[in-house]
Amino acid sequence: MTEGITMTRVIDVAQARKDAKPIEKNDVVFDIQKLTASYGRQPAISDVDLKVYRNVITAVIGPSGCGKSTFIRCLNRMNDLVPGARIDGRILYQGDDLYASGVDPVEVRRRIGMVFQKANPFPKSIYDNVAWGPRVLGMRKDLDGRVEKALRGAALWDEVKDRLKKNALSLSGGQQQRLCIARAIAVEPDVLLLDEPASALDPIATSAIEELMHELKRDYTLVIVTHNMQQAARVADMTAFFSLDVDEGRRTGVLVEYDGTAKIFTNPADKRTEDYVTGRFG
Amino acid sequence: MRTAFQQDLDVLEATLQEEGELVLRALRGAIKALETRDEELADEVIAFDDDVDERYVRIEEGIQLLLARQTPVATDLRLVLAILHVNLHLERMADYCVTIAKLTKLVPEVDPGPRFVEGFEEMGSRCEEMIKIALDSFGNRDLEGAESLVDLDELIDRANRRVVERIMELGSDPDMREYGLRMVIVSRALERIGDHAVDIGEQTAYLLTAEFREFTDASHPSPRNA
Q: Which residue blocks in A165-256 are alpha helix, DSSP H?
């Protein structure tokens, strides 16, 4: 069975495993400090401290209502659009306060793109869907090249290159979701936020999205909210587990544990995490 | 709550403990057959291995199903992996009992003296104690108990060395030499059973601490045994 394998080779393999690149924790994209997000008087998440690292996939998992979506919507100021939404604490993006006065939320959302649970292409051509963002932002130079690059980046180019003028709604669900990813990366963001991007897709389309995420992390920092724990285990480098604190009938999302995905799924430190990932929650 | 999953895990663990009990019976039978030169009992021990194998296969199949259908993680994952290893160690122990029974049938009619039998009695009872501790510490999630197996194993290793020394003193009579050669293997089989018990202890430690580590090995002897 071990014929041909020398001891040197065995030692090399052992060494290579030891040398496997650890997550680069120096390069912080988001430094989230004491973040509390409320709708009206009710905090949805409370006192969240967390750092998101560059070119890393960070998964956010937790039971329904624990504030996962609220949390990632804070990262590109999407909650600004919700009446009564309020943020306390700080989110530093590349060292700058994302919520400081004078920060343009539109520019924030260009740099920090978002893909939603349900694919939401515009009822326009495939081309126009991808070209829309660059056009609005005045990035008109070599628009064709930009559209192709984004579609290639979203692993969709080969499937649609001959029908770019066709209506985007003619694509399958999985293709539509990849189109939304192409639309998000066409404006050259720095970060992609994905809120349950594969929950409405079949296993093959889900697998395509997960493969794509592995590709995308070379160029982008990704934060994914997912209900599917195995998806988090498969794609994420870091995993944040949120849970619900219930106090006098009030339910508030809290960050319970944040660590390498391998640690969360083999030996979590907190019993609440253990109970959730092993399915003993509730 | 994943009730069905928990039940599957409980059944796997119970079957593992059952397999352990069978190994203990096989070991007692093998030692008794050796001491009394009872060929009939030796045959029973050999046939009894099928019972152990049946549990072994049942556990393997159960784990295969559990991994495919339940995707265990965290403590559950470690428990399933540990059961997979412990299962193999128990099955190997039973195989060593078969080896002892087979050798019992092969030895020529010679009288090596009572010290020999005493040596095997000692090794056999130490093995039995180690298997019990290994199974109990696994079942009770007892790290201290699991780690205590290292010292007990050292006692078996010493007994093994003593048996080998006695074999060297058996003289040059061909029957005696054949007997000696076969008994070297018996002694070695018992010594290996002790090693497998320590390995089960290491699985208990893995289950509890999530760290893969050998309690001791040839290239890194523990300080107390160095």
A: 173-185, 203-216, 229-235
Neighbours of A277 (CB within 10 A): 26
CATH of the domain at A72: 3.40.50.300
CA distance A273 to chain B (A): 9
Chain B residue with Cα closest to A269: B74
Whether pTM > 0.80 for this model: the answer is yes
- Whether ipTM > 0.90 holds is no
CATH 1.20.58.220 matches B3-209: yes
**What is the number of domains present in chain A?**
1
pLDDT digits (tens, 9 = 90+) for A130-175: 999 999 989 989 999 999 999 999 999 999 999 999 999 999 999 9
Contact A58, A255 (CB under 8 A): no
CB A224, CB A61: distance < 8 Å:
no
Asked whether residue A245 is assigned to any structural domain, the reply reads yes
Residue A170 lies in a domain: no
**CB spacing of B74 vs A230 below 8 angstroms:** no
Instruction: Please indicate, yes or no, if residue A282 is contained in any of the structural domains.
Output: no
Residues of chain A with Cβ-Cβ distance to B76 below 8 Å are: 278
Domain that holds residue A214: 24-117+190-277
Alpha carbon distance A109, A188 (integer Å):
11
Token readout for A271 is: 């019993």
Smallest CA–CA distance, residue B210 to chain A, in Å, is 6
Alpha-carbon gap: B66 to the closest alpha carbon of chain A (Å): 13
Alpha-carbon gap, residue B92 to B87, rounded angstroms: 9
Would you list the domain boundaries of chain B?
3-209
**Rounded distance, CA B214 to CA A256, Å?**
32
**What does the CA dihedral B107, B111, B115, B116 come to, rounded to 10 degrees?**
-10
